[in-house]
Amino acid sequence: MSSPTISASTVGFVGLGHMGTPMASRLVDAGATVRAYDASPDARAAFAAAVPGATVVDTAADTATGAEAVLLCLPDSDVVEAVVAELDAARVIVDMSSSEPLRTRALAEQLADTGRVLVDAPVSGGVSGARAGTLAVMVGGPDDVVADLEPLLAAMGRPRHVGPVGAGHALKALNNLMSAAHLVASSEAVLVGEEFGLDPAVMLEVVNGSSGRSGSTENKWPNHILPGTYGAGFGLGLMVKDIHIALDLAASTSVPTRHAAATVALWDEALAELGPTADHTEIARWLRAHKEAS
Ligand code: NAD
């Protein structure tokens, strides 16, 4: 049953891609009135077919009409800043993209000059988590505004207030750095095991009951890599963007991160060969191809 709080809500939503579509769909299912927009006509048409309960509007600015908040699920900080520049009528903007924390802070300060609030609420859990409404939502912003947003965010997953504005984006980048490292580490380990004569399926079964397990071994390997489908729905270009954000964040601190630098260098190489639209799980296939070529 939808909560009374959210069924009284009108929400703007910009960015109807792999994540935005199922996230906005959860809001509609929870009873909110959703005004949705994407720059791509194809994405708007696909969204209208997939989520008939939402209203698709013609501009980003139109999403703000009557909305208590406008939610963004866009590729990166460049796009977020460009879209926010069109959202004069939005008093509360929630950036659910994986953006750059320092730019998020600066944008929040700029909006505060005109009495508006930016909250960051990036997500983790992938397309399957977005469909199921089980995303981890990492929220940065002022206590009162974050409390008001709780019912909306809870329709998409498990919101956790992690600090002031920018804190969610910092945590999300660091999460993806760990995730990227786990995927490379498990891919190399599976290749070594196979070469030694181990069965990858057996390796994963045992590792998933052991200390080497991760989101890669529990989800990405069995669901997307072993079956050879590589359809997690998270682009390689977006993953590389995220881990560079983490590396820049590290550089803004005094913490040495040699392991992170090596991880990012490997992903950069994969991006150069596979391109940004490849699924990020294809790095496992890429590592195998390099083993076979060596
Ligand atoms: P996507 O590329 O599938 O969707 C992005 C959408 O933004 C596209 O439909 C695109 O047309 C639209 N867009 C681009 N520029 C625009 C503009 N100026 N105005 C309006 N719309 C515009 O990306 P995604 O996989 O949905 O990811 C969105 C964000 O969520 C990214 O920051 C990504 O890093 C993050 N994320 C993705 C996943 C995942 O599994 N796919 C998981 C967690 C977080």
UniProtKB/TrEMBL annotation:
Pfam families: NAD_binding_11, NAD_binding_2. The keyword Heme does not apply. Keywords: NAD, Oxidoreductase. Residues 166-287 form the 3-hydroxyisobutyrate dehydrogenase-like NAD-binding domain. Residues 10-158 form the 6-phosphogluconate dehydrogenase NADP-binding domain. The keyword NAD applies. Belongs to the HIBADH-related family. PANTHER family: 3-HYDROXYISOBUTYRATE DEHYDROGENASE, MITOCHONDRIAL, 3-HYDROXYISOBUTYRATE DEHYDROGENASE-RELATED. This is NAD(P)-dependent oxidoreductase.
